[in-house]
Amino acid sequence: MAKRTFPSSRLPSSSSARCSRRLVDSPSSSAGPRENGAMETDDWALLNELVQKDHVILTPSQAHDDFYVIDYAVKYDGFIVTNDMFRDHVSNKRSFHGKRLTSTWVRSHCIDFTFVGKEFMPNPRAMERVFNFQPSTMEPLPSAAPTITPVQKTLSSSENDVGDADDDAGDDGMTVDHAGTKRSKTIDLSEVTYYKVPRGLLPMLHGEDGQTMEKFQEFTGTYIVLPSHAALEAPSPRQLSNVLTLSIYGPEASRQQAVGHLDAFLLQMQEQYAIQQRQQQYMPSQQQQQSTASNGNMAAQDDQMMEIDPY
């Protein structure tokens, strides 16, 4: 039932508690040994005992436990026992405590494992990091430069490349996102809506120095992750998609409000684009007509000149 495991300096020093602190999915209040065949009576007693001792932290039922697990590990500079490399969260530039998650941090803080029969076997090389673990001072890092990265990936494409956000990683593998830190701490990040927009509209969404998007988030009560301005201008050897994906976090009502405004904005942009296209088509046609008329006048003048007898 346990999802992830962290060593932490906040744990008791006893040998039984020294090795781990676990986050697990919270069972429903009515669930019990008879309703869940996977949990025996002794298992429930052990789970309740670990919860009471603060060795196990329950996550809300049906919640995205990844957010709680990563948040806890970043907060206490701990390790995560998991075979999940969190590729979706890395590619979507999730931020935890003001630092953006990177694959470098994942590789250095996650311990993969397997089972041989009933014996739990974590990666021995990863366990060396645990035994030699020294908590960091958690000093604030300098503000990170925008990352030149291709199109944002959605959860469906999370098995693709891992290293998109490594270039601007700090010493601890995380990058600081000061602009969204305050908002991301006050907005629930467990629910997200993905919204696709044409790549060409990215500068309009950012506005001047990001002020347009900043005000839009304040107005709708959401936290929105979108590609940086550099994603539009970055040279790439491969053909980039014309569509970018925004990640909209917040309560359902706020996300619906944001989507409604974005729908109206896109419709307005499409209408303006259609008008510009018609104008561009009209101007060459008008120039061609003027050119044809001018050529006709010159031909008439030539005919008249040919009729003149100088003698």
Strand arrangement in the largest pleated sheet: 1-2-3
User: How many strands, what sense, and barrel or not for the largest sheet?
Assistant: 3 strands, mixed
How many extended strands? 13
- In whole angstroms, the N-to-C terminal distance is 113 Å
Keywords: RNA-binding
Protein name: RNase NYN domain-containing protein
Biased composition (Acidic residues): 161-171
InterPro entries: KH_dom_type_1_sf (IPR036612), RNase_Zc3h12_NYN (IPR021869)
Question: Could you walk me through the main structural features you see in this protein, from its secondary elements to its overall organization?
Answer:
InterPro entries: KH_dom_type_1_sf, RNase_Zc3h12_NYN. This protein has helices spanning 15-18, 41-52, 65-76, 87-91, 103-109, 124-131, 178-186, 202-206, 211-220, 230-233, 252-307, and strands at residues 2-6, 21-25, 56-59, 80-81, 95-96, 99-100, 110-111, 113-116, 119-122, 175-176, 192-198, 223-225, 243-249. Helix content is 42%, strand content 16%. The longest helix has 56 residues, at 252-307. The strands form five sheets. The protein has a three-stranded mixed beta sheet. The protein folds into two domains: 1-180, Rossmann fold, CATH 3.40.50; 191-301, K Homology domain, type 1 (Ribosomal Protein S8, Chain: A, domain 1, 2-Layer Sandwich), CATH 3.30.1370. Strand 8 (113-116) and strand 9 (119-122) form a beta hairpin. The protein is of the alpha+beta class and 311 residues long.
